[in-house]
Fold this protein.
Amino acid sequence: MNRKLILCMSMIMVLCSGCHDNQQNSHSETLLNKVSHATKSYVDPSLTSEHYLHGVKKIQVEGYENQSTFFVEERTQKITQFPCMRCHNQPLKKMKNKNSQRAHWNMKLKHADSSVMSCTTCHDQKQLDKLTLLTGKQVSFNHSYQQCAQCHFQQAKDWGGGAHGKRLGGWAKPRVVMSCTACHNPHEPGFHKRWPSIISKVPGEIK
Amino acid sequence: MSVKIVFNHVRNMFSDKEEKKTPTPPKKKSCTSPNCTCSQPSSAFINLDLKSMIGSQGMKNTADDVSTGIDSIIDSYEPDKAELPEDLTTSCGSGCGCNNGSHQTQNNQKTGVHQLFDKKVDRRQALGMLAGTVGAAVMTTGCSSIVDPKIKEKAKLTWEEYFKGNFRLMTDTEKNNTVKRLERLTQLNHRFHPEIKSTQARKNVLYGYAFNISKCRGYMDCVKGCVKENNLDPETGMQYIRIFEMKKGKMSLEGADGNYHHEVPVEGNFYMGTQCFQCENPPCVPVCPVSATWKEPDGIVVVDYDWCIGCRYCEAACPYWARRFNWKAPKVNKEKVNKQQHYLGNRVRDKGVVEKCTFCIQRTREGKNPACVEACPTGARIFGNLLDPKSEIRWVLANKKVFRLKEELGTEPKFWYFMD
Amino acid sequence: MKKQNNIVALRHFFGDALACLTKGSAKYHLWMGVLTFLMIFGAFAYWIQLKEGLVVTGMNDYISWGLYISNFTFLVGIAAAAVLLVMPAYILSDVDFPKAVLIGEGVAVAALVMCLAFVTVDVGGPHRLWHLIPGLGYFNWPDSMLAWDVIVLNGYLLLNLCIPFYILFSRYKGVEPQKKLYQPFIFISVFWAVSIHLVTAFLYAGLSARPFWNSALLGPRFLASAFAAGPALIIVILSVIRSQTRYQIRDAILHKLALITTIAAQINLIMLGSELFKEFYFPTEHSQSAIYLFFGLHGHNSLVPWIWTAVILNVIATAVLTLHPFRRNFKVLVSTCVVLFVAVWIEKGMGLIVPGFIPSPLGEIVEYFPTWVEIGVTVGIWALGLFIMTALIRVAIPIELGTLRLSDKKLE
């Protein structure tokens, strides 16, 4: 009698485990365990997003040497009227004194306090084709992110890792990211209020 | 009915407002002075500008526009008009997998009749084949002289499609056949020729998504991008993504406003987006009585629209309200439709089936980012391969304090929220 | 020879049954005529739904199940309740019951047909239902509770068609049905009846997404309410039969059924009480649905009068049934049973399904109002069920009375 009972029980267990085994495993192994496990045998899926870049000229980002290389979009060639020295062929003071038409009249600096930031905090006074760091080191417009990183170091860290900013192309390699100024107007870096671009339709009453 | 009218009214009013508003702010920003050398007209600004322009156009179109000339252009656009049907007729039909197209991978030497006697043909397929033959016979004998050959072809293809199997269980050849049939049927029914892919999941890929709550401003560009990419019918108002306006001071979605109509962002509020989280342990999958939904090896939970019976059990089972049902046949606008499609993604859906966000499977399987990620103007959305230790998503998981919605349910969403 | 006889007898059986169905009093014809009209109206409404899609119903992505699934849930309970008559009759050999049992099984068959019809009208692609057939389609068993439900409902329908058919056919031939042949199936159907309702309860209780349903009490409560509403319906039907036909149903049967109904209704009330306690002693976010149902949420309160009607009717009916003098009075009993039936229909139909969806898992509140199409289809299916039930009982009674018999002349 007892033996029969044991046999019966074991039969039931075998029957149940037939289907429940998989589920048990998936419950006990968390997603993160699974991910770290699969990472060990990770081989690059050899997928590229190069052709979604549509001929964007990429510049390798400097200053993030301890992580894998990534790129920003070439900037200088996209600036209309570059090089700046074509107009700025005299020192700034001289140009200001002239009674000629004022350039950059529409430019307003809404970036930090006026006691902190002025035009020359970023733009090199002598070499207007370049930007300047706090130390006086000249930086190309292609690498303007270095300038932002001086104050916004936390954002720069996130940007380098991928938690801040946007990618060009796709998720697959190569990693080409938008530079800071692609989204933030450096003279007015905040985002503006606006209407949503679409509305959601909820049936019945509007809450 | 009256509610619908009110909604349409509100939307129209809204679209008017929208048209006026969006294109202006970017214009203000771009420099007008010829001497200007400032960095404003940078690519992103141009992008934004263009996007908003396109956006406003889209809005105009939804309101009411009449297309005239384009019709004829689209009509003339019938690629392989001669080639495709021929290809289909030479295949023995009913999805038995013996076409002589270029995609042939298996069953190289078999013809239709041989395959009928092959062991692999199960009862369903046999029934399908039989039905297909009978259907075709009826069509040809009964009304051959009267009916337009296009209608005949349509009936035949519809019939064959009706008896096909579950996509997950199809062989590669069967998949190719059904894709070809669907492309042709779309051409016949909706008068445009889509490119429907059936790209499979890649090895070493598991998709993950992160959402930065500090960055989202509730502009809903993602929703718009999603609607456009996935061919959602604006008339039914179906949207995969929801953006909730939440009061600071609590994290619960209870009492959050997912239906705001005002300028954003509003002081004192933050914004949180939801969509399908592609759970690693999805509650919606086991409940399906016919296995019309499953998790792909790359982690995306998909629906076979042609296999779904529309019982909506999965809709009830989803704790994130991520699934949508086609309560009526969605309208397809052949001018605006996205022709880059995937069998499991944005292809034309019938009424009475469930659909959902697939992380834009038609894009992501090709290495692109989902449409919402691409559309987001604030960079709040991060997408990537969880298995790649150097991916951005992995960096976020390693360096940010992340959380997931309703983690206590054990669904293991592959969608994380984080803050700066 | 014997086989041939059986085939001939079968032919006569159906012939006689049809004759029995088409003849009757003006009252009977009027009743069937009204039901047919309602069925046609339901079919018309369903045709609209097929053409336009489920958009013509009041359902949406927020409330994805409505009137159809509510009625389905309730009717599964009615079907399951037939077991309460089968068990004492065939297993305990209670002398009073066998007469009522065939009626109970007729009710079960009608309820099951209605269940299947409600599921069919609820799905978006009824033409794709062949995907459920194992072998041809892909039957996701044992993972999906809906797959379990399909098995359980169809199996129960088969059992409830076969057992009474065997018994009636034997009686028709003038042979006493062999207990050995049908008793094993009776045993199976007893377990099956409990399982159809538990499986249907698990269909909801297994959804972690919907805290209103995700409760261990849901299954037992389903059983309790089913064993209240089912026998209540049968009491009503038996009273009608008693007044309209020569079929003798003794008072003892009604008394026993009334007792079962009373006890089940009492248990149901206790469970309702414990559920209310759990939801309202310290309401959490998971209690929102219950708050919506009983008191309304943020100004949305369309179900509040509905559920309070059910609760009040339930309490009144249970109280009346509990008091012996009332229960013994047949007029009071029948009207109380109607009240109880309606109360359970509200409570376990719309009162259970709809609040499960409110608020949505993301906290949004959208209310549900059925449309005329939905109501039309529902009425049509109820008419279908009543039609089937009337037909089955109509044939069963003369056979049981012995007036409908296979005459030897016919065989020769």
Remarks:
- The two ends of chain A are 65 Å apart (CA to CA).
- Chain A has a mean pLDDT of 85.
- Strands of chain A lie at 58-60, 71-73, 131-132, 138-139, 167-168, 176-177.
